[in-house]
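task queued by scheduler; priority normal; single chain, no ligands, no partner chains; default sampling; output format set to C-alpha cells
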Amino acid sequence: MQLRIASWNVNSVRLRAEQVARFVAEAAPDVLCLQEIKCREAEFPVQAFVDAGLPHLRIGGQKGSHGVAIASRLPIDDAPTLDLCREGHARAIGAVVSGIEIQNFYIPAGGDIPDRALNPKFDHKLDFFERLTAEMDRRDPRNALIVAGDLNVAPGENDVWNHKYMSKVVSHTPIELAAMAALKSAGQFIDLAREAIPEPRKLYSWWSYRAADFRASNRGLRLDHLWITPGLRAAAFANGAPGARVHDHVREWARPSDHAPISIDLMV
C-alpha cells in the first residue's frame, strides 16, 4: 500500500480551509501535517477535514498563533507527546498511522538577530533544536519515524536563493545549520526531498509575501521538511527513486500561505 504524507505551514487553517480541501483533492495525501494553524482545538474546522476525507485528527491548538495538527484518512493511534517548547507554545503533535510514528513540528522562526545572548527568540529556537536532538539521541533509528514540519532552517547552499547573503540571516546561519545537522545525525535521518531532487538543483518551499511575483524574484528558502529514519528507507525506495516533491503551484493560488506543501510516498 502506498502511504502519502504531506506537510504544510498553512498560516491559518480557518482562513485556508478551502485551499486545504483543494490540495487534498489534487494531491490525495493519506496524512496531512499542518503547522501554524492559528486556532484553538475547539475552533478547528473539523467538518471541512471530514468532508475532504481526512476525518482522523490530532490537534494542538493555541489562540491566535502557532498550533499544529495531523489529519489522516486512516485511523490514528497515540504517539509520545514531546515536551520541547520551553515557552509552552503549541509547536509539536504526534500520531501513529499504519504503524509509523509521525512527529509534526513548528520550530520557532528565531527573530531577526542570530545571537543567543542578544535575542531570546533565537535562543528559544536553538533550545528547541537541542531538546529535539536529545530526544532523538535516546531513540533507536531502526524504528519507523517521520519528522515533519516547518523546521525554519534551510540547510543547504541550494536550499536558499543566495547562500552568501543568507548565511548572515536567521534561517541559514552557521549556528542554525549546525543545530539542524546535529538533529539529523542524532536520528540518522534521510532527507527524502534531497534524495529525490539532488543538489545542485535549487529547491524551495517558502517565498516572502513581499514579492509581487514570487516566481519572478524566486528568492525562496527550503524551510519545510519530511525526514525518515533508516527504518523506513526500504519503504521510501521500494520503487527505486523516492517519491518526494514540493507542490509549489499551491503558492500561486489566491491568498496563499507563504509556504507550499511538500509530500513523500512510502510503500507500507
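post-processing summary
- The chain has one domain: 2-267.
- Residues 110 and 121 are 5 Å apart (CA to CA).
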